[in-house]
Amino acid sequence: MHQIIDLLKTLLADPDKLMNFITTHGGLYVVMFIIFAETGLFVGFFLPGDSILFITGIIIANSVPQFGNEVVDLIYWLTLISTSAVIGNILGYWFGLKTGHLWFEKKDTWLFKQKHLLQAHDFYEKNGTLAVILSRFLPIVRTFSPLVAGIVKMSSKKFLSYSIIGALAWVISMVMAGYLLGHNTFVKHNIDKIVIGLIVVTTAPVLFKMIFGKKKEASANP
After folding, report:
1. DSSP per residue over 117-151, as a string?
2. When you count CB atoms within 10 A of the terminal residue's CB, does the N or C end of the chain come out lower?
3. Extents of the domains making up the chain
4. How far apart are CA 201 and CA 58, in angstroms?
5. Res. 4: pLDDT tops 50
6. pLDDT score at 65
7. pTM of the full predicted structure?
8. Alpha carbon 207 to chain centroid distance?
C-alpha cells in the first residue's frame, strides 16, 4: 500500500510522468477509471481530475487516431469519460441514499475525512440542485457532492439530469482545453503551471459566489 501511495505522490507531482504513466498503462481507459473513482468512490477524493482531463486532451492531440480521424477519436473519448463521471456520481448518490446519516457519524480514517463531507454538505446547502453541476469544478467537493445528494434524498431524476449536464460541462471543457493547446510547445513544457491556472480559472467563480454570497446573506439578516 505504501508503494502505491508513493507512486501516486510521484505522479501527481510531475504531470509529465503522469502522462507517460497513462500512455503506457492502459491508455485513456485508465483515465476512465480514475474519473469514475474520483467522482464515485470517496477514497478517490485526492485524485487530480482536472489535471488528468487536461492531460487527456494533450494525449489525444498527440496520438495517432485509432479510428483514423481525430474528431471521431475525440468524440469517442469524451463520451466514454463523461459516462464514467456520470456512473461514478450515480454510485455515490446510491451510497448516500442507502446509508444516509451514518456517514456523518463515521470517524476519520486515512481514507475518509469528516471535514470533506461537511464541506460538500455546506456547498450543497448553499447552491441547491446546482451544486451537482458546480461541484464538478471543485476538487474534493465533487467527490462527496453525490453522496450528500443521496443523503438529503434529492430526486433521482433531477440528480441524474444535473449530473449529466455537470459531467459534460466538466469533461468537455477540460479535455478540449488540453486538446486545443496540445500541439503548443510552451504548454508541453509547462503543463504543471497551465493546470494550476486552469483550476484557478474554473473554481474562482464558484468560490466567489460562495464567499460573497455568504457575506450578502449576513448583511441582509443582521
Report:
1. HHHHHHHHHHHGGGHHHHGGGSTTHHHHHHHHHHH
2. C
3. 2-182+197-211
4. 19
5. no
6. 79
7. 0.74
8. 16
